[in-house]
């Protein structure tokens, strides 16, 4: 065989071996079993402007946030590539020049000076949580790096690094690092911040600025010096950056709106980012307000605050408790903004609004505040006092019970329940029957329910259900009350004086205190926003001496001041609103009269107040003490139809000559008006 033929044959053999090697290498790389590249990232709850409200850790309690390359400061990315992998955009996953340099430096110095790993190889190690130094590990990283480069583009690989790189402790990824070390997102970083982020992943355990500030500073400055020597950054800029102080401690991740964040996460378990209608700054202010407000109440008490835009129905803030934990007696883990409680007097405005709508009353209609019974139900005012005849508007401002129940008796309790239902409120009845007691708090609602109900009132009678997610299904508004009735009630409530020491501002608001002082409330609105405050014990035990006007109302006004410097003006009266004095009203509206008025005794007719009807009493010396109220003297007392006392001018007496058994006691006044009770005597 000639020399030329032998050379040709040799070249063919070399070529075949080379091709075979490349084919084997390609098949070897193609057969690589890649680790999962779509790792779990922290679920993020964000406000209406994109600000982070709360985040949740991933497995093993690590913080790892999703991030895209275009969400990171470009100067940092440039510094990272220049320092870690200069040929990142040209190699195929392994940089043999860098490996040769690292090997030569190790041989000359007897120790590892530089690693030679590309960013792609580092991603391979991070995804597999593998070692860094031994050759079997390096070989595996090279294989995975080549496979990654075949399946993903450079930006995708860089994104994997930015998501998984370690930055000290349980921080993974550049977003977790910038939030924890600098308190901001990675879009805009200083040169010093960028250099620290380049240096940290090389040795995250020994370069943490909060634990090893000298080592961290030295590592950061080496990065800056390298950038200057390679003319990537100006010398003056790097020198200035070297004097910038390091962060001395990690910042806590935001933990705002914890109850609502938990609810959002449970409702959207597959989403890594959930947007709420909340405003982070307002939420923070109201959580701070809630914590401050509980300093002067018993240790077992909790607080809840909800604020919304009543024109859009968007909830802007929701505080379920003053502290999200169970380390004290306040049971802070319970979301009291959505706990069912008795609303006290806060439903009264809607009774009056329905009365205005039905033509039963007008704000200037006169109504009686006097003792009265509705079958077996005999309500009393909270203070036990009676004001006699007064305008309906004053009865509402004074939160009197008897006028409210008298109106509800005419309207029907079922209609109040229907109004709440049409407003989007799911009220809970203790039984199957809606009685008159629901008007005074005998029904279960949540604070969020009440805010929604008052949002309807503030929105001129149009209901717009509250929402807490921007993409939440929003039903079209529907009319629940006429705009004139809604305005009239709002105008009455706006006439209430603000709590003592509170800056003046026209806020329409109502307070309430449930039976036994178990719940105290304040709900109010201005021309744009509505808010509600609840204070009480989560276990339902009383707060002795607590009243809505004293405890909850100042917090309500303070909440509005945290939102804005002064309230938005309330609307002007609709043109159809009847603005008249009591004397100018049509005759049927001048004085409220129930449908049973023709059969009811006159307000000043005599009333036996002792003994009560149906009482069982023991006779003392054959005489029975009696007492009456109202009526015109002189009085005649009768027992079983027989006069036993005549010409009595006093309103108390002792009836003689009574015997055991049932007796009907009757009193007749000078105008012939009578009152009677039946008692059993022993």
Automatic annotation (TrEMBL):
TM region positions: none
Keyword Glycosyltransferase in annotation: yes
Protein name per UniProt: peptidoglycan glycosyltransferase
Keywords: Carboxypeptidase, Glycosyltransferase, Hydrolase, Multifunctional enzyme, Protease, Transferase
Residue span(s) of domain Penicillin-binding C-terminal: 602-679
Source organism, top-level taxon: Bacteria
Keyword Glycosyltransferase in annotation: yes
GO molecular function, one term: carboxypeptidase activity
Gene: pbpF
Start and end residues of each Penicillin-binding protein transpeptidase domain: 304-515
GO CC annotation, single: outer membrane-bounded periplasmic space
Cross-referenced NCBIfam families: PBP_1c
UniProt GO BP: peptidoglycan biosynthetic process; proteolysis
Pathway it works in: Cell wall biogenesis; peptidoglycan biosynthesis
EC number(s) on file: 2.4.99.28
Ranges where the Glycosyl transferase family domain occurs: 59-227
Family statement drawn from the similarity comment of this UniProt entry: In the N-terminal section; belongs to the glycosyltransferase 51 family. In the C-terminal section; belongs to the transpeptidase family.
Catalytic activities: [GlcNAc-(1->4)-Mur2Ac(oyl-L-Ala-gamma-D-Glu-L-Lys-D-Ala-D-Ala)](n)-di-trans,octa-cis-undecaprenyl diphosphate + beta-D-GlcNAc-(1->4)-Mur2Ac(oyl-L-Ala-gamma-D-Glu-L-Lys-D-Ala-D-Ala)-di-trans,octa-cis-undecaprenyl diphosphate = [GlcNAc-(1->4)-Mur2Ac(oyl-L-Ala-gamma-D-Glu-L-Lys-D-Ala-D-Ala)](n+1)-di-trans,octa-cis-undecaprenyl diphosphate + di-trans,octa-cis-undecaprenyl diphosphate + H(+)
């Amino acid at each position: 065989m000639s020399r030329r033929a032998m050379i040709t044959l040799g070249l063919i053999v070399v070529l075949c071996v080379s091709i075979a090697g490349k084919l084997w290498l390609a098949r070897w790389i193609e057969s690589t079993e890649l680790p999962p590249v779509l790792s779990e990232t922290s679920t993020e709850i964000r406000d209406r402007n994109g600000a982070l409200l709360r985040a949740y850790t991933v497995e093993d309690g690590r913080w790892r946030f999703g991030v895209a390359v275009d969400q990171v400061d470009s100067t940092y990315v440039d510094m990272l590539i220049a320092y870690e992998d200069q040929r990142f955009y040209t190699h195929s996953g392994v940089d043999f020049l860098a490996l040769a340099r690292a090997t030569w430096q190790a041989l000359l110095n007897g120790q590892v000076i530089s690693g030679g790993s590309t960013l792609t190889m580092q991603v391979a190690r991070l995804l597999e949580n593998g070692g860094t130094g031994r050759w079997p590990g390096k070989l595996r990283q090279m294989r995975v790096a080549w496979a990654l480069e075949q399946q993903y583009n450079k930006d995708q690989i860089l994104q994997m690094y930015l998501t998984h790189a370690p930055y000290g402790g349980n921080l993974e990824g550049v977003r977790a690092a910038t939030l924890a070390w600098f308190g901001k997102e990675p879009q805009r970083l200083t040169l010093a911040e960028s250099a620290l982020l380049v240096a940290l992943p090389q040795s995250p355990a020994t370069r943490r600025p909060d634990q090893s500030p000298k080592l961290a500073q030295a590592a950061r400055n080496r990065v800056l010096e390298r950038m200057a020597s390679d003319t990537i950054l100006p010398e003056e800029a790097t020198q200035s950056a070297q004097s910038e102080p390091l962060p001395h401690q990690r910042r806590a991740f935001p933990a705002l709106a914890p109850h609502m964040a938990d609810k959002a996460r449970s409702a959207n378990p597959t989403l890594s980012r959930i947007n709420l209608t909340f405003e982070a700054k307002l939420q923070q202010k109201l959580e701070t307000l809630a914590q401050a407000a509980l300093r002067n109440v018993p240790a077992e008490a909790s607080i809840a605050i909800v604020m919304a835009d009543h024109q859009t129905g968007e909830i802007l803030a929701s505080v379920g408790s003053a502290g999200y934990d169970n380390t004290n007696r306040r049971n802070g883990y319970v979301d009291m903004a959505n706990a069912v409680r008795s609303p006290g007097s806060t439903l009264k405005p809607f009774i009056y609004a329905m009365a205005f709508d039905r033509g039963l009353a007008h704000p200037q209609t006169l109504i009686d505040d006097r003792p009265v019974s509705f079958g077996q139900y005999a309500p009393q005012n909270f203070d036990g006092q009676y004001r006699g005849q007064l305008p309906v508007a004053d009865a509402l401002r004074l939160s009197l019970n008897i006028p409210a129940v008298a109106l509800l008796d005419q309207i029907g309790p079922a209609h109040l329940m229907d109004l709440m239902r049409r407003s989007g409120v799911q009220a809970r009845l203790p039984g199957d029957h809606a009685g008159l007691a629901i008007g005074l708090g005998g029904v279960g609602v949540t604070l969020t329910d009440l805010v929604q109900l008052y949002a309807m009132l503030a929105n001129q009678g149009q209901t717009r259900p509250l929402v807490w997610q921007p993409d939440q299904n929003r039903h079209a508004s529907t009319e629940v009350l006429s705009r004139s009735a809604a305005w009239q009630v709002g105008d009455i409530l706006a006439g209430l004086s603000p709590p003592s020491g509170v800056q003046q501002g026209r806020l329409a608001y109502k307070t309430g205190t449930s039976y036994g002082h178990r719940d105290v409330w304040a709900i109010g609105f201005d021309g744009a926003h509505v808010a509600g405050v609840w204070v009480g014990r989560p276990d339902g035990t009383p707060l002795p001496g607590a009243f809505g006007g004293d405890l909850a109302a100042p917090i309500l006004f303070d909440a509005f001041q945290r939102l804005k410097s002064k309230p938005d003006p309330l609307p002007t009266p609709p043109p159809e609103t009847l603005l008249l004095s009591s004397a100018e009203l049509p005759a049927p509206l001048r004085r409220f009269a129930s449908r049973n008025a023709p059969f009811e005794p006159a307000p000043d007719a005599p009333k036996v107040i002792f003994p009560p009807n149906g009482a069982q009493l023991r006779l003392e010396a054959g005489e029975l003490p009696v007492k009456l109220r109202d009526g015109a003297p002189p009085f005649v007392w009768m027992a079983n139809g027989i006069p036993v006392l005549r010409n009595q001018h006093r309103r108390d007496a002792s009836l003689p000559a009574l015997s055991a058994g049932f007796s009907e006691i009757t009193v007749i006044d000078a105008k012939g008006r009578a009152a009677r009770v039946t008692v059993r005597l022993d």
